[in-house]
Predict the structure.
Amino acid sequence: MSTESTLVITAVPDFVSPEEHRNIVASTPSSFSDIRPVLRHKQDNVSVTLDPPLDALTPEDGANGVLYVIESALVFMSSTGRGFQVKYPAITLHAISRGDRPSIYCQLDETAPDEASEDVAEMRELSIVPQDSVSLEPIFEAMSFCASLHPDPNLSEDDEFDGDNVSDTHFETLDGEEGEELSEVGRVRSDFVNNNRYAPY
């Protein structure tokens, strides 16, 4: 089953390259809102796992495909012709895991805005495993950049960080346990904080 923030897809959303975007902007388009989102990174030969899984996707769908880090969404398209896209506000945390199977680990909060409560919601876990582990850094950096373009709409002015204490991308990169490199996107849920595998503090 798809959710509002995680959608099963059969085609990759439209995008432009950074060079195409520069050329379009330089030509002064009639409407900037009509410009397609920019592809910040593309990685071939990637496998993914979702826990709990999406009903419409099989393990075969996650075995091999292409990862697209687009400014509008994180997209995985399988070689089977099915895939999914995740909106960045739903990615509450992404981390580089350098264990036996190097990967990008993500937690997805798919709670609809009108369903928000003080209770801790169950997270969906996403693991992105590129065949080439050298690509972990550029994938991580591209995700961090794209996520910074989508601030939490529920963040009030009182909750915002002091401008003197954050970087230009509004992210703080933390060193976790066992070689984990963590980037917080929004708030970290208590169940994540208590998980020793990915302790952000």
About this structure: The chain has four helices and ten strands. Residues 160-176, 184-201 have pLDDT under 50 and may be disordered.
